[in-house]
Design brief:
Blueprint lengths: L7 H8 L7 H9 L16 H16 L3 H11 L6 H10 L2 H8 L5 H9 L3 E3 L2 E2 L12 E4 L3 H12 L9 E4 L4 E4 L14 H8 L2
Antiparallel strand pairs: 1-2, 1-3, 3-5, 4-5
């Protein structure tokens, strides 16, 4: 799932949400929000298993997770006190690729993952090449000090459209982002019924 290269517009339409944010995929969802291949208005009615599976697919595609990684996150929070679903999404939101996307460095999460793997980003002055790196409160993200890389991300900012969440501060002049707090339920950007996903994973 982390390396999904198929038609992104089809995933958006199938799941009925803006999962992939590329321009073409977003426009396809706006034009036709019905599932692909379903010519009856409203499509088919899903079973409880089908609904849970669809919600799980939303999380996997949105955050770029594989099945094993999603289950790993679930097992990390399953025995902790509090709402398991919220804690699961908190882990997803704390991923380096997600924070880079939400801070406004990139337009999409795949772009953020590509930049991380290529060594474009540092956390607290140390190069990190793992998109799944879990950020902690106070961590600072900066861009590698090379002019072509700096200009690349400056160019993204010049296009506008960034909507930085409250749990991240971002300085567009220095290309520096700081995780101000651990993201909570009000910070989650994916509309998903995570509770039925937790029930699905607990089987």
């Amino acid at each position: 799932m982390a390396r999904y290269h198929g038609p992104k517009a089809r995933i958006n339409r199938r799941l009925g949400a803006l999962i992939y944010e590329s321009a073409g995929a977003a426009k396809a969802l706006e034009r036709r929000d019905n599932p692909p291949g379903m010519h009856v208005k409203g499509g088919r009615r899903l079973s409880n298993w089908g609904k849970a599976s669809a919600e799980k697919q939303k999380i996997k595609h949105y955050y770029g997770l594989g099945e094993r990684q999603l289950r790993k996150y679930y097992h990390m929070v399953a025995s902790k006190k509090g709402n398991t679903g919220e804690q699961l999404l908190t882990l997803c939101e704390r991923r380096l690729d997600n924070v880079i996307r939400r801070a406004g460095f990139t337009k999409t999460r795949p772009q953020a993952r590509q930049g991380i793997v290529h060594g474009h980003f540092f956390v607290n002055g140390v190069k990190v090449t793992s998109p799944s790196y879990q950020l902690r409160q106070g961590d600072v993200i900066t861009v590698r000090a090379k002019e072509p890389i700096y200009n690349l991300y400056k160019g993204v900012l010049s296009e506008g459209g960034a909507n930085t969440p409250d749990f991240v501060s971002f300085d567009g002049e220095t290309l520096r982002a700081t995780l101000l707090a651990v993201p909570g339920p009000n910070d989650f950007s994916l509309p998903v019924d995570v509770n039925i996903v937790v029930e699905f994973l607990s089987r």
